[in-house]
Amino acid sequence: MITQVPAILLQAAPTTFEEGDLHQGLIIAIVGLLIVFLVLIFLSLFIASLPKVLALVGRVWPEVEEHRAISNEADDEDTEMELLAAIGFVLHTEFQRQASGGQSAK
Amino acid sequence: MDIFTEFLQTTGFASMTFGNLIMIVIGVVFIALAITKDYEPLLLVPIGMGAVVGNIPMIPGMSLSVYDSESWIITEDGTVQYIAGSVLSYLYAGVEHGIYPPLIFLGIGAMTDFSTMLSNPKLVLLGAAAQMGVFLTFFGALCLGFTFPEAGAIGIIGGADGPTAIFLAAKLAPHLLGAIAIAAYSYMALVPVIQPPIMKLLTTRKERLIRMAPPRKVSKREKIIFPVAAFLISTMIAPGAVVLLGMLFFGNLLKESMVTERLAVTARTSMIDIVTILLGFSVGASTQADTFLKPESLRIFFLGALSFAIATASGVLFAKTMNLFLKDKINPLVGAAGVSAVPDSARVVQMVGQQEDQHNFLLMHAMAPNVAGVVGSAIAAGVLWSVLT
User: Which of B88, B122, B145 is the C-terminal boundary of a domain?
Assistant: First the structure.
């Protein structure tokens, strides 16, 4: 004999609907909607007050326009440009030297 | 000859049912709509192909279907034997256990810019108003005889958020998951068709012409603080939303923190794409005719359409109500974007607004209730999950 236990049986069975449940359903719907509104009202109030709070904080701890990571990126870019310029200069000098060497050989 | 006859009996032609055929046609229609009409192609193509794959008749005794999950059996001699599930069942496990939706929320968070919402906080309320669709449909589903958990899972279709609908359906009514997911994504694809008539019906031309002040510049510090603070505020009140909102705001923090750009890029590109493929395909494959083609699926589709309509109407009407008290009026069309189909419903607002005034740009304003709608629908899902479990 083989007994298989399907996974679906291990889950809770759905509750059955009864006549008086509509009233309870209506309460759940209203309370649920109120909770959503409550959260978003709080969120809205927080967002509205955030600039004012940050203005106060900004007096003590001013906001830095550029972040460290961005400044590092900018530094990297500068270094890269300098490196390219140096390589360009060396190549240019070398080509000129070769060109002048070639002419003299002729 | 016997082997040949046996082989013929295992072919799809021999065991194909009329229901399978209908589902394959539906899958092909989804693919065609995505390709020809450009209706949510990133979702409809995987779902459509999944529906085609899932409705090829399976060979008895072989683990092929999404529902052939792993199991343990007790044999006659009392030993326990493990039977591996099908490949599709392992892919479907991410849907079944609600793993994919939070990962999609992570990607959404990493691609969402909350600036417009931060610059005009009163528009957040429109995202809450649109959730009326969820709760009224929940009540409507109860009236139609669905159980509480089923009604909750159906109601969330009105949140216009596919991952949220799948997440809640997997938790509350896994047997309806296929129908709910298909309804949610179908109506999301049909946002440009469903919303405009309702928006025009509920607004006057004068209202549609209202121009809104451009949003203020939001500082970087605000953007960084917001995801952490918003997460704390939301989940302290509605802890059921912790999974979805946690991932959403975590993704947004990756984007805004400036120091995790690589992670943010991965979350909003490669990762969300991979998860969308797995989610769409496995949801499509779960729509096997014998589980999907039932009268209750039709009722779910009806309730889903109703839910979208109510959500759109609630957003627009709430914006009109807010205008009674506001000095700087809101264009009530923006209320329709409280339906969290990002960014489709915001685009519809822009489109309907520009039909009246070519120079009225409502898109950026509509993005505020749009992203608030994402937060609102996740909270609604969390509330329903915690109450109905």
Answer: B88
Quick one: how many helices (H) and strands (E) in chain B? 22, 2
In a domain, A55, yes or no: yes
Average pLDDT, integer, range B350-375: 93
The count of domains in chain A is 2
Query: Is residue A26 less than 8 Å (CB to CB) from chain B?
Result: yes
Contact yes or no for A35 and B237 at CB 8 A? yes
Same domain, B369 and B255: yes
CB neighbourhood size of B15 (10 A): 14
Reading the block at residue B321, the tokens are 């109500």
Cβ A40–B124 below 8 Å, yes or no?
Answer: yes
CB contact under 8 A, B230 and A43: yes
Among B42, B62, B88, the domain-final residue is: B88
Of B74, B118, B150, the CB nearest to A47: B118
B18 and B132 assigned to the same domain: no
- The domain total for chain B is 2
Four-point Cα dihedral A5, B171, B303, B203, nearest 10: -170
Q: What are the E-state strand segments in B207-246?
A: none
Average pLDDT, chain B: 92
> Which ipTM value was assigned to this complex?
0.90
Task: Give the nearest partner residue to B372 out of A6, A40, A67, using CB atoms.
Answer: A40
Spatial separation of the C-alpha atoms in residues B53 and A25, rounded to whole Å: 38
Q: B369, B335, B364: which is closest to B350 by C-alpha? A: B364
Contact B225, A47 (CB under 8 A): no
Closest CA relative to residue B53, chosen from B74, B34, B36, B31: B31
Whole-angstrom distance, CA of residue B230 vs CA of residue B226: 6
How big is chain B by its Cα radius of gyration, in Å? Answer: 22
Tokens 């059996």 sit on residue: B73
Could you tell me the pLDDT band of residue B61, with boundaries at 50, 70 and 90? confident
- Which runs of consecutive H residues, i.e. helices, occur in B33-159? 41-54, 87-96, 100-111, 115-119, 124-129, 132-143, 148-155
Query: Which pLDDT belongs to residue A92?
Result: 79
How confident is the model at residue A6, as a pLDDT? 44
Expressed as residue numbers, the domain containing A45 is 22-63
Check CB contact under 8 Å for B142 and A4: no
Asked if B142 and B75 sit in the same domain, the reply is no
